[in-house]
Amino acid sequence: MEKPISCQKILGEIVSLISLQYANVLVNSHPQVAQGVHNHSYFRSDPMTRVYYTLLYVYGVIGTPEERDYVSKMVNKAHRGVRGRNYNAMDPKQQLWVASCFFVASLTVQETFFGLLDDQSKEVLYKDATRFGTSLQVPLEMWPENVNEFWEYWNHEIHHFEVTSAVLHVTQDVLYPHNIPLWLLFVPPIARIFTIHWLPKACRARYGLRSTWVTCVAYCIFVFIIRWVYPLLPEFLRHCHVYYVKRELRRYLK
């Protein structure tokens, strides 16, 4: 019997990791969020550690109650010191934006690689994704009531954000990361192809990204290969990242 649609089901597939760059670009489109990252994060100097803790949070939230409680406390502790004149990582409005990006990234992965969702399934996925915010400081009533209202909120926000120097600096670090292992150097250029084609046109222009015939062809080839070859991979390979993160969470929970 097929599992019902959920963030756990989508993000449990290793192909979902290709959306990390896209999600981070969306997250840091918010000028206050980007300012906090720019002033306090070690993403530029140590992107792999940043990715590690992001994965701990994401898979902790969609994990057991114990895992969810642990990662919520972990993130709250880290966020308490991230504040400045015009930003505060504990601000529910800023957290709502970040959590919204997890929903959009999950939906994008699902519909790109595994098939379009009907309206009812989108609502189910949306309600499931609210936990990324409610696990922190975002009360459930702050979320738009349904998917249609969510897209009104989303489109208004993403097209009205101020493009600050912090946004540009952090986004460049996300798109062109430094200090990553040699065996992962091929990942950012491939991820950029997906990011370019998933971002709204206005957002691409902000960050100097262009959709060309080369990126279009590459995108179509990658999507075709993943759609047809990925389902043939053994399950342990498709879910190996989850096994790793779960092992790390168990280590912290001891």
UniProtKB/TrEMBL annotation:
Cite the entry's keywords alphabetically.
Membrane, Transmembrane, Transmembrane helix
Recorded GO MF terms: oxidoreductase activity
Q: Which residues form the ER-bound oxygenase mpaB/mpaB'/Rubber oxygenase catalytic domain?
A: 14-228
- State which residue ranges cross the membrane: 96-117, 180-199, 211-230
Record's protein name: ER-bound oxygenase mpaB/mpaB'/Rubber oxygenase catalytic domain-containing protein
